């Protein structure tokens, strides 16, 4: 038992983990009290991220959370999204062909734009700039970039900042546009959240998460840790096995751990490196979000979805994080997540196709 417990900590001392999570909870709670957008996630991320960047330590050790704890909670989001599947929603799916097809243009344009910002304005070496500009596929970009001789620390930092800046900027943009904070109260509202889950419902949802992750990994699905549970949960809900969804507190816990673990990534990064990466990432994220908004304006009449849903579907953030925003806004999380899965697949394929041409 002790060996198993130590393995879960992944070499991080328990006092450090508890202190890091406590700081994340304090930051998230403060952000929610101030009604900031997606408060628990962003508050935890900001509190731990700033403290980590400033060199905060517990017992001489930097702030840290085992990263696999974050991934262990991501299936909760997938199960929640799967609860949104209804026959009426599935019937709309053929109309999404226009916006999904447009990703074949959007993704390579966003990639090339990010590459030019990193290589020409930032002066980064071509392999680093190229793989840092991939608008999706975090782990794949790190793997391919390392093989190509990229600066792995800068590449990792730029990819994480893209994800983090989208998490920060998208809720703020929606808050400005709608006049109220995103996910600032109970966390999220979703189909099935008002259904009191009984023991059978809990068993079905837990099974959907576990089977989804295992099956998604076996099938080599992109982002299997969330895509697999989405598909398994959708099948369970469409089959009538349950009408319940994960309650709001489970989403809040997921936001807390995800935000805290992302913030801990800033530990040990030099100030000059962080400042350069932040400037470059902000420019790239702003350019990609502007392109996404333009695409949303052009396509919303063709796919029978509001501009907000399309903008969120094209925002180059993480699948799980953008899905959290979609759940908070009560926008079709299924529509958003489907587009993000396709975006990641196209980004990986395009990176392999363009690498030889741009890196020569």
From TrEMBL:
UniProt xrefs under InterPro entries: AbrB_fam
Keyword Nucleotide-binding recorded: no
Transmembrane residue ranges: 34-56, 68-90, 96-118, 160-182, 202-219, 226-245, 251-268, 280-302, 322-355
Transit peptide is among the record's keywords: no
Keywords: Membrane, Transmembrane, Transmembrane helix
Top-level taxon in the UniProt lineage: Bacteria
PANTHER family: REGULATOR ABRB-RELATED (PTHR38457)
Designated name of the protein: AbrB family transcriptional regulator
Species name: Ruixingdingia sedimenti
Lineage: Bacteria, Pseudomonadati, Pseudomonadota, Alphaproteobacteria, Rhodobacterales
């Amino acid at each position: 038992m002790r060996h198993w417990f130590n393995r879960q900590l992944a070499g991080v001392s328990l006092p450090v983990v508890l202190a890091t999570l406590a700081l994340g909870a304090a930051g998230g709670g403060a952000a929610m009290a101030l009604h900031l957008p997606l408060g628990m996630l962003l508050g935890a991320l900001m509190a731990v991220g700033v403290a980590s960047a400033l060199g905060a330590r517990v017992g001489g050790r930097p702030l840290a959370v085992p990263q696999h704890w974050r991934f262990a909670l991501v299936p909760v989001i997938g199960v929640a999204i799967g609860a949104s599947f209804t026959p009426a929603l599935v019937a709309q799916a053929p109309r999404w062909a226009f916006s999904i097809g447009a990703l074949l243009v959007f993704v390579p344009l966003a990639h090339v734009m990010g590459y030019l910002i990193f290589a020409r304005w930032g002066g980064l070496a071509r392999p680093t700039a190229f793989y840092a500009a991939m608008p999706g596929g975090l782990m794949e970009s790190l793997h391919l970039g390392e093989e190509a001789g990229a600066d792995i620390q800068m590449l990792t930092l730029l990819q994480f900042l893209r994800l983090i800046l989208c998490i920060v900027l998208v809720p703020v943009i929606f808050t400005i546009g709608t006049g109220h904070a995103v996910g600032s109260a109970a966390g999220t509202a979703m189909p099935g959240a008002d259904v009191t889950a009984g023991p059978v419902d809990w068993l079905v949802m837990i099974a959907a998460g576990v089977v989804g992750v295992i099956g998604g990994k076996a099938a080599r699905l992109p982002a299997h840790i969330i895509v697999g549970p989405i598909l398994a949960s959708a099948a369970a809900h469409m089959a009538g096995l349950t009408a319940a969804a994960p309650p709001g507190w489970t989403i809040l816990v997921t936001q807390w751990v995800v935000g805290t673990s992302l913030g801990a990534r800033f530990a040990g990064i030099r100030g000059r490196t962080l400042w350069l990466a932040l400037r470059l990432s902000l420019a790239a994220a702003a350019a990609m979000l502007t392109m996404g908004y333009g695409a949303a304006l052009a396509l919303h009449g063709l796919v029978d979805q509001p501009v907000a849903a399309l903008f969120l579907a094209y925002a180059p953030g993480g699948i799980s994080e953008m899905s959290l925003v979609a759940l908070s806004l009560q926008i079709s999380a299924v529509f958003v997540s489907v587009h993000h899965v396709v975006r990641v697949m196209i980004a990986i394929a395009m990176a392999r196709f363009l690498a030889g041409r741009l890196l020569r």
